[in-house]
Q: What sequence folds into this?
């Protein structure tokens, strides 16, 4: 049932003000308890759908750790999610949900999610940043056996992740731990040639042409 809207009426956090003369629809200028002014459609006020300037929704999102309105990575009404938000959910599922098909490779062998990121997508996004392209996904680097935590996560392509797998042998070259593929790329050599030289017992430095 709709109600009659009058100046000075309180609706939730809103105090109803004057009609907005130049609005395309019938709207009232309302003052929210948080201090914001907002023009709101009269039918939304009458139905009770709108009871704040939007701050109630923001606070609900923060309480559940989604930060949906602030970051725009998950749309509360449509259910659409960004790639970054989906990656955050998947990361947690791999580590926390025993029913997840990949749990045995992550949570099952002790891989954890940084406590602050567990319930705060915004903190995770602030650290890792936006996904560079559709080819990138979340990778633990430089320690592939470590946790999802500050200093050990990045966006990486499938090729980069393959190089970061725990079963890839790494070589110390000029103080860096590199796979043969990474070393070949860094020093401008063909990967198959570097693999061949290493298989024949060449030192890593010789294999990439440093000596």
A:
């Amino acid at each position: 049932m709709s109600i009659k809207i009058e100046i000075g009426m309180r609706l939730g956090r809103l105090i109803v003000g004057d009609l907005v003369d130049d609005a395309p629809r019938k709207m009232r200028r309302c003052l929210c308890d948080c201090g914001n002014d907002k023009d709101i459609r009269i039918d939304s006020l009458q139905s009770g759908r709108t009871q704040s300037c939007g701050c109630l929704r923001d606070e609900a999102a923060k309480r559940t750790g989604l930060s949906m309105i602030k970051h725009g990575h998950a749309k509360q009404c449509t259910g659409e999610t960004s790639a970054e938000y989906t990656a955050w959910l998947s990361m947690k599922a791999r580590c926390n949900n025993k029913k997840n098909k990949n749990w045995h490779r992550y949570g099952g062998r002790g891989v954890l999610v940084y406590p602050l990121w567990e319930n705060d997508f915004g903190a995770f996004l602030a650290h890792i940043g936006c996904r560079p392209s559709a080819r990138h996904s979340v990778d633990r680097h430089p320690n592939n056996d470590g946790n999802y935590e500050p200093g050990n996560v990045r966006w990486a392509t499938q090729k980069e992740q393959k190089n970061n797998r725990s079963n890839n042998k790494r070589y110390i070259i000029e103080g860096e731990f590199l796979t043969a593929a990474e070393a070949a790329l860094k020093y401008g050599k063909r990967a198959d040639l570097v693999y061949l030289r290493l298989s024949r017992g060449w030192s890593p430095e010789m294999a990439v042409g440093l000596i």
Notes: DSSP finds ten helices and eight strands in the chain. Residues 83-96 form the longest helix (14 residues). The first strand starts at residue 10 and ends at 11.
